[in-house]
Amino acid sequence: MIASAPPPPPTHPTSALSPAPLLPTPPPPPPPRLLDQLRQAAQQRGHSEATVAAFADWGRRFILFHGKRHPREMGLTEVGQFLESIAQTEKDPVRALAASRDALDFLYREVLHLDLGELPLPRPPRLLDQVHQVLRVRH
Q: Which end of the chain has the least Cβ crowding within 10 Å, N or C?
């Protein structure tokens, strides 16, 4: 009796009985970073490029002022501390306070969707106080 030869192996690496190997699904892309979200929201609402850049700059300065903490973790107290620092250190504190308050208000309301209420408005130092400070340093 002649023995029959076994059937030839399949020529394709996957046979009809085994399913095709599944390719791993790539993870979803990470959400945009906070300052990118801020820029995008300001552009979508029709703000000029200068305003968009200013909002992003004030947001960055606020985050760095508080040791790179996320604004969602901070509240009115931290905003007040930052604005108080602006009032004491900027050359033109009135203009800087207005710009920084607008930027932080936009960040919290439009990007983070948090209502902190009315943001504090620290009083900038009086010119006479600044003159006294300069005179104390010189003498």
A: N
Chain position carrying tokens 């399913």: 19
Q: How far apart are CA 96 and CA 56, in angstroms?
A: 14
Q: What predicted TM-score, i.e. pTM, was given to this entire model?
A: 0.70
Q: Give residue-wise pLDDT tens across range 89-128.
A: 998 888 999 999 999 999 999 999 999 999 988 887 765 5
Length of the chain: 139
Residue with tokens 């900038």: 124
What fold, for 34-138?
A: DNA polymerase; domain 1 (1.10.150)
| pLDDT tens figures, 76-92 | 999 999 999 999 899 88
Distances (CA, A) of 38 to 120, 126, 138: 21, 33, 43
Torsion from C-alpha of 64, 69, 71, 75, nearest 10 degrees: -110
DSSP classification of residue 71: G
